[in-house]
Design brief:
This protein is an alpha/beta fold. It has a domain of about 260 residues: Rossmann fold. Helices cover about 40% and strands about 15% of the residues. It has 21 helices and 16 strands. The strands form four sheets. It has a six-stranded mixed sheet, sandwiched between helices. A five-stranded parallel sheet has the order 9-6-7-8-16, sandwiched between helices. Helix 16 packs across helix 18. The chain is globular.
């Protein structure tokens, strides 16, 4: 089956997978979505025997129809190699302690930047490189990315010193953790540029989207030999690789005899921009036995409110939390889900997204709400998040970061509400996606454990290691002596100028 991609806002737009990856976002602002969600037809009994790389090929191949087998294997083998700290790439931590035997943690933080964004951004530069050759692109690519903390570093690491590519990352100056900022501003690579923005993540993301939509700027840069693309999860080349690890995790549960083949499991995902849980939705649509998709928000609970009321309303103040990668009020990937539940209506999707821009909210129809039954939305307060970190550690000795703790709290609340009621949910196993290493947020984790969280990165990570009896990741240790290479800070209305200045 040859799957092409359409825009969520224009039915007339149709591109190949490689073209969608190169372009990143459609010219009118829509996101690329597969015309058909394939039935992967993977024998579940084969999954326990497959490596992560083999699962990646089987899952991604139908979505990347214009990539030859050898091209896709080249991308996979270059991406998922010894840059990951463990051979499994995404190991599944199956907790066996009493009272926790229904939950497993899918560790997505063993890549170079210690966050789940590595899982897709390790392969995106290679997918893009093949796409350049396929489409005979003569211009250099400018990767333009807004980050709430983790995407930026993962993209910088992936694209650093890649020939024919420049990468510019914008981040909210006071809206990321100390480790996240250090990871970005110490990034090497002659083609890398990092800019702190005086504003929050939504301001930053909106600024990047406006640059993408500015045809005059795009034409000006094209004359100088540049074209824009994106490494955000709005790029379909980010989303497709994220589908892989849900299949891999299911295979690990089978290998451990925790479930039987075909048995449905729930997944609980800490969610900001909606990409990671949308990947789970696609996995379910392609045949993986996933039951409930538990969407866990922090105190910026626009998604919880949406799943509860059917109205998406960003007209509120952004709350700064200990889970900064989720401090988001505009969940960009939700647009893809809206497109699907609207019956693939680009007109309806465009109408709702215009309403979100102009009136800061939209309301979906009752018919669309009926198609959200796969999802359960809830949120964790800051107190809930800290309590979940301590609760899991005290009961199991397992250490989690604040983002993962948001999902852990929401999972526990879901089990309390539904898991003991005699419903079909009773006894169902759950996979929680562990989004980041706890060492990226050592101070907050220490405070949650009742310890002193004050101090610089070196001090807090050493203290956390002593308390938890776990090793400090090498990527964290390297930060403490790395020189600062990027010093630029700008206002929101200066973002376009930053881009043109860098590309002179």
């Amino acid at each position: 089956m040859n799957i092409d991609y359409k825009s969520t806002r224009d039915d007339q737009v149709k591109v190949t997978a490689s073209q969608a990856i190169l372009q990143g976002i459609s010219n009118e602002g829509g996101l690329f979505v597969p015309q058909t969600i394939p039935d992967l037809d993977i024998d579940l009994d084969e999954l326990p025997k497959m490596t992560y790389q083999e699962v990646a090929f089987r899952v991604m191949k139908p979505y990347l129809a214009d990539y030859r087998d050898d091209e896709l294997w080249e991308c996979i083998n270059k991406a998922y190699d010894d840059k990951f700290a463990c051979k499994e790439i995404a190991p599944l931590k199956i907790l066996q302690q009493k009272g926790m035997d229904k939950v497993s943690y899918l560790e997505l933080f063993h890549g170079a930047t210690l966050a789940f964004k590595d899982m897709a951004l390790a392969i995106l530069p290679h997918l893009m490189g093949v796409a350049v050759r396929k489409n005979r692109l003569e211009e250099d690519i400018v990767i333009l990315t807004a980050t709430s903390g983790d995407t930026g570093k993962a993209a910088l690491a992936g694209f650093a010193d890649v020939p024919g590519v420049k990468i510019i990352v914008f981040y909210p100056k006071d809206g990321v953790s100390q480790v996240q900022e250090l990871q970005m501003v110490t990034q090497t690579g002659a083609n890398t540029h990092v800019v702190g923005v005086r504003g929050n993540f939504d301001d930053t993301q909106t600024g990047v989207k406006q640059i993408f939509a500015n045809q005059a700027i795009k034409e000006q840069l094209k004359q100088k030999g540049y074209v824009f693309s994106s490494a955000n999860s709005i790029n379909i080349g980010r989303l497709v690789p994220q589908i892989v690890y849900y299949y891999y995790a299911y295979g690990r549960l089978l290998a451990a005899n925790v479930i039987k083949s075909g048995e449905a499991v729930d997944v609980a995902v800490p969610t900001g921009n909606f990409g990671n849980i949308l990947a789970a939705y696609y996995a379910k649509q392609t045949g993986l036995p996933l039951a409930k998709l538990i969407c866990a928000s922090n105190e910026n609970k626009v998604l919880y409110d949406f799943f509860t009321t059917g109205t998406y309303n960003r007209d509120r103040n952004l709350v700064t939390t200990t889970s900064p990668s989720m401090d988001i009020l505009i969940s960009s990937n939700l647009e893809r889900f809206i497109y699907h539940i609207s019956g693939k209506s680009a007109d309806k999707c465009r109408e709702l997204m215009l309403s979100l821009t102009e009136s800061k909210k939209y309301t979906i129809s009752p018919m669309m709400r009926e198609k959200m039954a796969d999802f359960h939305g809830d949120f964790a307060s800051e107190a809930d998040t800290a309590a979940a970190i301590k609760h899991v550690f005290d009961r199991t000795g397992y250490l989690i970061d604040p983002h993962t703790a948001v999902a852990a709290h929401v999972y526990e609340a879901y089990q309390s509400q539904f898991g003991l009621s005699g419903t079909p949910d009773d006894g169902r196993k759950t996979i929680i996606t562990a989004a980041a290493s706890p060492y990226k947020f050592a101070g907050d984790v220490l405070r949650a454990l009742g310890a002193d969280g004050a101090g610089d990165v070196e001090t807090t990570t050493r203290r956390l290691s002593e308390i938890s009896q776990t090793p400090i990741p090498a990527a964290i240790s390297a930060l403490t002596h790395a020189p600062i290479r990027h010093h630029t800070v700008c206002d929101i209305d200066e973002m376009t100028k930053m881009v043109t200045d860098f590309l002179k």
